Amino acid sequence: MSNLDRQAEPAVCGGRGFVVAEPVRELLSPRRVPLGESTEVRRLLPNLGRRMVGAWAFVDHYGPDDIAGEPGMQVPPHPHMGLQTVSWLHEGEILHRDSTGSRQTVRPRELGLMTSGQAISHSEESPRNHARLLHGAQLWVALPDEHRHVAPHFEHHAQLPLVTAPGLTATVLLGTLDGATSPGTTYTPLTGADLALTAGTETRLPLDPDFEYAVLAMSGEARVDGVPVLPGSMLYLGCGRTRLPLRAESDAGLMLLGGEPFAEEIVMWWNFVGRSSEEIARAREDWTTGTRFGEVHGYDGGRLPAPALPPVPLKPRGRVR
């Protein structure tokens, strides 16, 4: 997944200084950003008020979009470093290609997980013969310093563990929830789960009090700890919770994102996660000159050019602005 914003803003994120150490209810509104030729996303992280939730550093929600007779998602080859990308669909398909040679169609409630490590490039597109609707989320997970130079690789997991309760089915896409652990590779203590609730359901989801959490609303109407959340919004919950009350006013889809607060400060610009301005500048130069990030074969079109770097050195901004 690419950040296609041509006015890419740098941010230094992470560090524990701004972690909310107690339960809160902070509703985050999205910023609308064009993605490729015909898709618009609602960006929840980084947000004006908050930049990370655990190691989750980037969250886009898109759709449901009617793409019948349209190309749908068309994201040209572009680079990543220092992060993992997570593709998660409720409707539609995405064809993934990357510079390690991976080629995989990801379908609803299947995990597409790409670890960029030191350098990778990939493309994402709706297949030529695609479903009418496209609806999903694209997310990034920042890699800690000790693992951010691992060899790049892609994972596809069609079968994921479930946690069930009356009126609730939780699919664990990353990390662990209520004793169920995803096969997806993680490098920090993390949780990512898709929550499907039937209308009228009231339940409590077990949480780790050492994690900070947020809930992304995908569809329907639900209350999270008493707060109404509408599709395309995200509720930040802080730390210190052992249970999360949920109520579905209609059939609803949510995503639970959580993790141990990320201890390191990171510089995030365009599609790179690094630790300094100089590192980001080197990555941009390497992509521009065609070195280090490899090639994506099979995409019908050219590579995505990098935006211009800001005229001043990147400065720390912390976990919250």
From TrEMBL:
Pirin C-terminal domain span: 193-292
Entry's transmembrane regions: none
Entries under InterPro entries matching the protein: Pirin (IPR012093), Pirin_C_dom (IPR008778), Pirin_N_dom (IPR003829), RmlC-like_jellyroll (IPR014710), RmlC_Cupin_sf (IPR011051)
All copies of domain Pirin N-terminal, residue ranges: 41-141
CDD domains the record matches: cupin_pirin_C
Similarity remark: Belongs to the pirin family.
Name of the protein described by the UniProt record: Pirin family protein
Organism from which the protein derives: Streptomyces pyxinae
